[in-house]
Write a structure and sequence with these properties.
Order of helices and strands: EHEEHEHHEHEEHEEEHEEHEHH
Strand order of the largest sheet: 3-2-1-4-5-6-11
Structural class: alpha/beta
Number of strands: 13
Strand content: 15-25%
Bound molecules: uridine-diphosphate-N-acetylglucosamine
Distance between the termini: 37 Å
């Protein structure tokens, strides 16, 4: 059985990756400090090691005998990364370097890395493909780009193989209901909408209504987490059979506005949300959509969830 260590496997995307790996017959170990990941999202079929990626000895120990690593252990709040860059340098950069170095030390040669559309910065053209200039405009995005570059160098210098997956906006939950622990404290749009829908939050603020888009609100490429998880499995298969190292976008290519997300949510939950329209949030591009042609070509990856209401329904199900 192929052994995979999933760093951050108790987290939102990580738990979905663990499910997909188990479903595909991998032997999975989860390495997570449970800082944002949740115990309720651990699978009994996977071994659990409670550890921090900043603890090199423990990490190196967990790495022994693994065939591949999926690394999703990171901090991901864009605003926080601008206010506290040292925290992001420590967790995302030093922590990731620990993973890469623990791999080299233990002869683990394959890694799938959780990267982000934030590596691109302000779009110069749309949809964004992998040839787009890499000019992150927030420190979070910079940490992801930095690790991609380390991996590129390690792949040149050593018997080391990687796939960096640049997620666009991850949304939704496992439709079979295996993952019950919703993400806590997320500053992303859909979790905030869910908080407004359930009364955990008084209202939802829409950041900007004067963008040059079809209804004035920002357009994003929302990609279901189960589709993202599937890409990790395909990326591991690709690397294990000797495929080349690269960076790939993961998105649907479809853009949805904030107002459209709100309307779709209201339809799914059957009631109106309390919405306040406020000014723009700094650093928000008007439109972000992905070309995932390369992921399709290299991995045969095609997203299945393309209906936004269906995606929202899988999130709303956790609130029932
Ligand atoms: C950002 C990052 C993305 C990262 C993600 C993780 C960039 C360009 N994108 O995505 O790479 O993976 O965070 O956290 O850095 N919105 C509101 N009200 C709210 C919250 C959001 O109107 O209360 C709007 C935003 O203006 C945006 C959309 O909803 O247009 C999505 O926002 P969000 O979920 O925060 O994700 P991004 O900023 O697109």
């Amino acid at each position: 059985m192929v052994k995979v260590l999933v760093a951050g496997g108790a987290g939102y995307i990580g738990s979905h990756v663990v499910k997909a790996l188990l479903k595909n017959g991998y032997e999975v170990s989860v390495y997570d400090n449970l800082s944002t990941g949740r115990e309720i999202n651990l699978f009994s079929q996977a071994k659990f090691i409670k550890g921090d990626i900043l603890d090199f000895e423990k990490l190196s120990d967990a790495m022994k005998g693994q065939d591949a690593v999926v690394h999703l252990a990171a901090k991901k709040a864009v605003g926080e990364s601008m206010e506290n860059p040292a925290l992001y340098a420590q967790n995302n950069m030093i922590g990731s370097l620990n993973i890469l170095n623990a791999m080299l030390k233990n002869n683990v040669r394959h890694i799938v890395f959780s990267s982000s559309a934030a590596v691109y910065g302000m779009p110069e053209y749309l949809p964004i493909d992998e040839k787009h200039p890499l000019k992150p405009i927030n420190f979070y995005g910079y940490t992801k780009l930095d690790i991609e570059r380390y991996m590129e160098w390690y792949a040149k210098l050593k018997d080391f193989h990687y796939m960096a997956l640049r997620y666009f906006n991850a949304v939704g939950y496992d439709a079979e209901g295996s993952i019950r622990g919703r993400e806590i404290g997320s500053q992303n749009l859909l979790p905030i909408i869910m908080d407004a829908a359930t009364g955990r939050r008084e209202k939802l603020c829409v950041f900007g209504t004067d963008y040059d888009t079809r209804d004035g609100t920002c357009v994003r490429d929302y990609i279901h987490v189960t589709d993202l998880a599937k890409a990790h499995v395909l990326a591991i298969e690709h690397l294990l059979k000797g495929g080349v190292s690269d960076s790939l976008n993961l998105g649907t290519g479809q853009g949805t506005t904030v107002k459209e997300i709100i309307a779709a949510t209201e339809k799914v939950i059957g009631k109106k949300l309390k919405v306040e329209y406020v000014g723009r949030r700094s650093g928000d591009p008007a439109v972000l959509t992905a070309s995932s042609a390369k992921a399709k070509e290299m991995l045969g990856w095609v997203p299945k969830y393309t209906n936004i209401e269906e995606i929202i329904r899988t999130t709303w199900a956790l609130e029932q």
